[in-house]
Structures are given as C-alpha cells and as structure tokens.
Amino acid sequence: MNASLSGATLLEGSAIEAGYGASQVLFGIDVTVRAGEVLALLGRNGMGKSTLLKVLTGTLAPMRGSVRFDGAEIGGTRPDAIARRGIAIVPEGRHVFPNLSVDEHLRAFARPRATASGQQAGAPRWTIEALYGLFPRLAERKGNAGNQLSGGEQQMLAIARALSTHPRLLILDEATEGLAPVIREEIWRCLATLKAEGEAILVVDKYVQRLLPLADRHIILERGRAVWRGDSAALDADRSLWARYLGV
Predict the structure, then answer these.
(1) pTM of the predicted model as reported, rounded to 2 decimal places
(2) CA nearest to 37, candidates 186, 196, 208
(3) Confidence band (pLDDT; 50, 70, 90) for 94?
(4) Which has the closest alpha carbon to 40: 231, 244, 241, 234?
(5) Taking CA 208 as the corner, what is the angle to CA 203 and CA 210, rounded to the nearest 5 degrees?
(6) Which residues, listed in sequence order, are joined to residue 11 by a DSSP beta bridge?
(7) Which residues constitute the domain of residue 105?
(8) Taking a C-beta distance cutoff of 8 angstroms, is the pair 159, 137 a contact?
(9) pLDDT for the residue 7
(10) DSSP character string of the chain
(11) How many structural domains does the chain have?
(12) CATH number of the domain to which 75 belongs
C-alpha cells in the first residue's frame, strides 16, 4: 500500500446526490481523498464525473449529502470560498484568458497557501520560478498571450495557474483530453512529479493504462453511481472492468 494512504483525510463526500432541475445525475456517491493521495475518477462520458466535480468545487449545490474539506462542511458553498480553502480545479476546456500572457496568468492568480480556515500558511511552495521549472515550455513562452499557445501549452498553463494558488487539493477534469501524444506524456510527467512532491490530486482521464502507475485508488462511475472501488493492482488485474465500464 502506498504510504500516502495513511495521510489525513482532506476531502470527504458522503451520500452525494445532485442533478440539474428535475434530472438527477448522482445517486449516493461517497468519495474520499487523503493528503498526498492520487484518486482517479473513471467512467464513460455522461456517467456523472464532471457533475461530481462541480459539486466538490461549488459550482453545483448537492441535492442531498455532505461534502467536507478538512473537516468543514463545504457543500453548497460558493466556488471562490472553496478555492480559498485550498481546492483548485483545472477545468475541462482549460479556460485560458486569450489576452493575458503566460506570465500575467501566473502572477494574477498567485496567492499564499491556505490553511483549513482559509488563512495564509507558510512560505509559498509553487513560486513562479518553480512553475517554470515544472513546465520549461511555458518559460519559453512567458510573453505569449493565451490565444497564441497550442492546446497542450494551454493545458500546461491551466495546471500551472491552478498550482500558483498553492492548493491543498488539485482537481483535473479530463487531464489529457484532445492533446497530442507527446504533450500527453509531458502532462503525465508533470502529474508524476506532483505526486512525488506529495500533492493531493483528484484526476479524471480516460487513459486508464497511464493512470495505473499514478493513482493510489480508483472509483468507477456508471449512471451516477459508484460501481467499483479499488487500487491500481486490483484494476489492472480485472480487465473485465475495463470492457464493462470504461469502453477500453
């Protein structure tokens, strides 16, 4: 078992139900992420993964259930308040500002690391220099505007921008979707580095084979329900799960 699994619980969602109007999407989802742990959220498109991330980050209020971060209830809390507590998301589609340079993105979003109560805690971990060290390609393009970057470079910027807030939990929605293979490899390298640095990560991605060495645990969603949970060894050993729930 990975040593990170002994870390304190950061995020704990219990019996989460959510949806849009009269349409319910999530049915009694439980999810836990510990300090230093990487959790992968798996499932085909339309099974509720992005809806769950919206609940966890405050852009969608749960119908029922509880979401706690470091012991404090955050279900239904505004996204900006959740972000100040230390949850950062790299959204699907990146949402890079076209008229801001790479350097302006990182400096505009940078803020001190927060404690559980949202107060400043200690020296910044991900300085601008450290982020350029993590993504040398961004350092080469620091003066380029967002709309002058390739899709892969925009994804790197979105990750660096999230890290500049010094999150206690980093969430990535479709981490490598639509990227060229060489750029995907750079993103996987980055995530492996973040894991080695002890970052807590919740990641959604379809490349199960690449998630196996990265994630400590996996949850598979099917029609808004968690149908399987386990570690990478168990998921690797049962390829019937891949065909049944992941379309691999």
Answers:
(1) 0.90
(2) 196
(3) confident
(4) 231
(5) 80
(6) 33, 69
(7) 3-246
(8) no
(9) 79
(10) --GGGGSPEEEEEEEEEEEETTEEEEEEEEEEEETT-EEEEE--TTSSHHHHHHHHHTSS--SEEEEEETTEE-TT--HHHHHHHTEEEE-TT----TTSBHHHHHHHH--PPB-TTS-B-SS-SS-HHHHHHH-HHHHHTTTSBGGGS-HHHHHHHHHHHHHTT--SEEEESSTTTT--HHHHHHHHHHHHHHHHTT--EEEE-S-HHHHTTT-SEEEEEETTEEEEEEEHHHHHH-HHHIIIII--
(11) 1
(12) 3.40.50.300
**Tokens representing residue 162 in the block:** 């999230």
Is residue 93 very low, low, confident or very high in pLDDT (cuts 50, 70, 90)?
confident
Closest among 32, 29, 11, 22 to 223, alpha carbons compared: 29
Residue 6 confidence (pLDDT):
55
